[in-house]
Every structure is written in C-alpha cells, then in structure tokens.
Design goal:
Protein name: ABC transporter substrate-binding protein
Pfam families: SBP_bac_5
Family: Belongs to the bacterial solute-binding protein 5 family.
Shape: globular
Structural class: alpha+beta
Keywords: Signal, Transport
Strand order of the largest sheet: 8-9-10-1-11-19-12
InterPro entries: Peptide/Ni-bd, SBP_5, SBP_5_dom, TAT_signal
Length: about 525
C-alpha cells in the first residue's frame, strides 16, 4: 500500500481552545514533554545480551490463539511468539517482516518471498506451506480481526514464494496483513491438536513461552533460532500481572519490576522526573470513548445520545484527567491514522447545556431517566472520568450509577452486550483507517459496531467504498463523511486521544513503543547485564 502524505499532514494540525490550553498550562504535570519517547541508550554503548526483564501489566494473558483474540492483554503476548509477513514501524509505515513482497499493476496479485533462513522456534524452516496453512486457518476461523479482503486464493508458488490473489481491489490489504492475527505458524499445527499447540505454541517470534498461568504471570525465554541476527538481547521476559495501576507504579519505583505497560496520566510527570525511572510517551492509535448499547431503549434514541454528547465537556474532561498527555477528540479516528478529520472544524457536537436539554426534550425521555455506567476497576483515570460523566448528566436529569468491575468481568459483560453505557477505548491494530472504522461501525462484524449494535446504511456503504478506493482525495472524502455521520449520530462519544504512556527503570535500553501500544522486546536490553 502506498501511503499518501498530504492528507495526513493536513489532518495532523493540533487544535485546542484558549481556555483549555490555559488550564492545561497551569497544571502541575504539564511539564511532561509530549515528545518523550524510547529510553535512550547509554551514550556510545552497544547493546549487550543477557538478563531477564520483568514487565508489569494490568491484565493477565489467558489465551494465545492469535486468530481468536483481540484484547491487548493477549495480543501483546501473541506478537512476541508469532509474526506476520509484513509489519509496521514506529511511524505506522508498512514494512517487510518475514517476507519481501511485490504487487502487480492491478493491485490484485501479491507475491511474498520469505526471507532466507527464517525458522520457527523449534528450528524447523518456515515454508510457503506454513504460510498458506496459517492464513487459510485465519480465513476459516474469522475471529475478531478477520481477513476481510476478497481473497480468491493463497498458493505456494515457489520454494520461498506465496502468491495471494484478490478478486477485486482492496486498498488496506497490506495493513490488514500486518496485524498480529496474521502471524505464521507450522502447517497442521506441527502435528498437534489446536488445543495442544496453543498451550505451548511455536512461532517465528523473538520469544518462546516458558511458564504460563492464565490467571497470573507468563514468562518467556529467547528464541535461539530468531531470524534477526543477535536478537533478542534478553535471555528472558516476564509479564507480571499487577491489576492496579498504582501498584504498577510503586513496584517500578521500588525496582521490583523493570518496566510497566500503563502509567496513569496523573503520574506521568512524576515518573518522568524521578531519577531512576524513564517515561515513554508516544502517539497512539487509540481513542478514549463513551460507548452506548443501542439495544437499550434509552440509547436507541438518537436524541438521548446527542443530549449526552452536548452535556459532556470533552475539553474539560481531557484537561482534568490527562494532564497534557492527550489531545481532545472531535472525531473517531486518531490524528496518527490516515484521514483523521480531527482538525476539521464543526464536526463534533460541542459542549452546550441548553442544546443538551433541547435534545433530551425531543427524545422519548424528556424528564430524564436512570442508567448505569460500566467501567473497569483499577483504572484511576476512568474512575475520574466516570464521576465527571455522572455529575454532567445529572445537570440534564439523567441519573447515573457507576458500576466498577474487575477487568476480566468487565470484558465478559460488554462482550455479552450486558451494559447500558461504558467507558472504554477503541484501538487500531494496523495503520489503515479501515480497521478502526470496520470494528466500530460494521453491524455485521465480530463486535457489532464495538458492542453498540449501531447500524447506519450510509456508513456501511461508505465503509465498503473506502476499502476499494485507492489512497488519495476520493478516499479521504469517504472517511471524512463517515466521521461526520458518526459524530452526528453518536453511537459513541470520542473524548480524547491518549498517548501511549509506559515507563522503565534507567537500566532498560532500546525500549520503543509502536503506535498500537506494543513493544518490540527483541530490541530491548539491560545495561549492566
């Protein structure tokens, strides 16, 4: 896929009201630099091998079947074990990974040539048959991140070549392939059953599962057959399950763990200023949102949703809860994703209590109603947002009860559509806008429009057009219209675009975060190992 640059540069302009900017500037934690990035390597030092890094995470790894998973707790363990044919770099550009590739002039035939010498973690060479089996298995399973391209055939066409033929144009195909769900594994699961294989999986990734408690920690050892020479530098990697973000930060500060996957925005400057910790703050492909279950009668009413959108002060919420580490969201797509319209004026419903009351008066619930807001426990920022939502909606006659649940139970509830409305984030797994839009606006997709059941015929039509239209002005116009419709009908309310906020001790080097929130731990090393 050829990435055009002009639309992206045009939509990356940052906008914030003077009042919000002044408020943010006055905050204690505004010293946190928006450009913070990977932990710098020691001056002039070459990476050294050895040691085990312990990474604190707020959720346990409970499943390693790459075709069946979507949540970050599993995805960012899966991508240490399995790797796709193509990937993306820190700026979101598609890059060859396990294979180089060529595309014919019609954009229908993709030929992938496996790198010479790529092996699985058991030492067996990766063959075209493994690629064919892996991708066909994904097509059969479907799963939460299905291959939706019109794939006509996947064939082994040489000793190292695989040819994928599409029946029609599909612009986001390479972006789709770059996701963790398209990792390659041995044909026929290496002679095992699926259950046996995914309990102790074999892939091409930099690490191999050593010990695993699906309700607790998972530890990895380095893949001695990894195709990137000299990597990984680490001998071992441990994902330590620590359910509370405060405990994460405290254990990092005490040196009990080496890195953490979540830094509360309220503590970002503190972590950054500490002598023994390093903050990583980078752009993400995520959007923090309020999601409505439109199967609930109140939230099936568009006027109710619009009333709530007008009642919420997105700039105030962003300023109060993100401490200058996030950007106010006016649309669904983050500015770091192609064709985001966040800088376009007049799309979002603005904070206006009079307009909120007028919209509610047009609804079937002019006198308000009672409802429950679902959030995951252990997340201090979302707890604060929930209180602001509760207070804001009380002003227009909507009584909100806040229900906090353990993150595993929280996910079970919204996966089962058992909620009124909730706070959650949307996260793209690949750089093309199609992935984000499909997951949040496709009523026939795995998540039924991110568990909202929202349906709009025009959005569905545009979504399909966007997949077939080449990158350029016409495709940009399609995604602009989609974002406008979603902003008008508000099946969800984008609040802000958070940064990826993670942290390490000073000994951790080469720690770079991808825009989807994953870390390529093959590049990480420990000073003094």
């Amino acid at each position: 896929m050829t990435r055009t640059t002009s639309p992206r540069s045009r939509t990356r302009r940052r906008g914030i009201s003077a009042a919000a900017a002044a408020l943010a500037a006055a905050m204690l934690l505004s010293a946190c630099a928006a450009g913070s990035g990977p932990a710098p390597s020691e001056a002039g030092a070459d990476p050294v091998s050895g040691g085990t890094l312990t990474f604190g995470r707020v959720a346990a790894v409970n499943d390693l079947d790459l075709n069946q998973q979507i949540t970050a707790n599993n995805a960012f363990a899966i991508d240490k074990i399995f790797e796709p044919l193509v990937s993306f770099d820190e700026s979101g550009e598609i890059i060859p990974w396990l294979a180089d590739y060529e595309v014919d002039e019609a954009g229908l035939v993709y030929t992938f040539t496996l790198r010479d010498g790529v092996s699985f973690s058991n030492g067996d060479p990766v063959t075209p048959d493994d690629v064919v089996f892996s991708l066909n298995r994904h097509l059969e399973v479907g799963g939460p991140l299905p291959l939706t391209a019109p794939i006509e055939s996947i064939e082994a066409t040489g000793e190292r070549d695989v040819t994928i033929t599409l029946s029609g144009p599909y612009t986001p195909f390479l972006s789709e392939l770059s996701g963790f769900a398209n990792g390659i594994f041995p044909a026929d699961f290496g002679g095992q059953t699926e259950e046996e294989f995914f309990a102790d999986p074999i892939g091409t990734g930099p690490f191999v599962v050593d010990e695993w408690d699906p309700n607790g920690d998972i530890s990895f050892v380095k893949n001695e057959h990894y195709w990137q020479e000299g990597k990984p530098y680490l001998d071992g990697l441990v994902y330590r399950f620590i359910a509370d973000d405060t405990q994460l930060r405290q254990q990092l500060a005490a040196g009990q763990i080496d890195a953490i996957d979540t830094v509360p925005a309220a503590n970002a400057a503190e972590v950054d200023a500490a002598a023994d910790t390093v903050l990583s703050q980078t752009e993400s492909w995520a959007t923090e949102q309020v999601f409505f279950n439109t199967e609930r009668e109140q939230f099936a009413d568009e006027h109710v949703r619009r009333a709530i959108a007008h009642a919420l002060d997105r700039e105030g919420i962003t300023a109060a809860t993100t401490f200058d580490t996030a950007e106010v969201a006016n649309v669904l797509l983050p500015p770091s994703i192609l064709y985001s319209a966040n800088a376009e004026p007049g799309i979002a419903l603005e904070h206006d209590l009079a307009a909120a009351k007028a919209e509610l008066a047009k609804s079937a619930y002019p006198d308000g109603f009672s409802t429950t807001l679902l959030i995951a426990s252990g997340n201090s920022q979302r707890a604060q947002i929930a209180q602001i939502v509760q207070e804001s909606l009380a002003e227009i006659g909507i009584t909100v009860e806040i229900e906090q649940l353990d993150i595993a139970v929280f996910r079970e509830r919204f996966f089962a559509y058992d909620f009124d409305f909730m706070l959650n984030s949307g996260q793209s797994d690949a750089p093309d806008p199609n992935g984000f839009i499909t997951f949040q606006a496709d009523p026939e997709g795995f998540s039924k429009s991110y568990w909202t059941h929202f349906t709009d015929e025009r959005v569905t039509e545009l979504m399909h057009e966007g997949r077939e239209t080449p990158n350029g002005d016409a495709r940009e116009a399609i995604y602009l219209e989609i974002q406008e419709i979603l902003a008008e009908q508000v099946p969800y309310i984008p609040l802000f675009f958070p940064s990826n906020l993670k942290a390490t001790t000073a000994e951790v080097q080469g720690f770079a975060v991808l825009p989807n929130g994953s870390v390529r731990f093959q590049d990480v090393w420990l000073a003094g190992s």
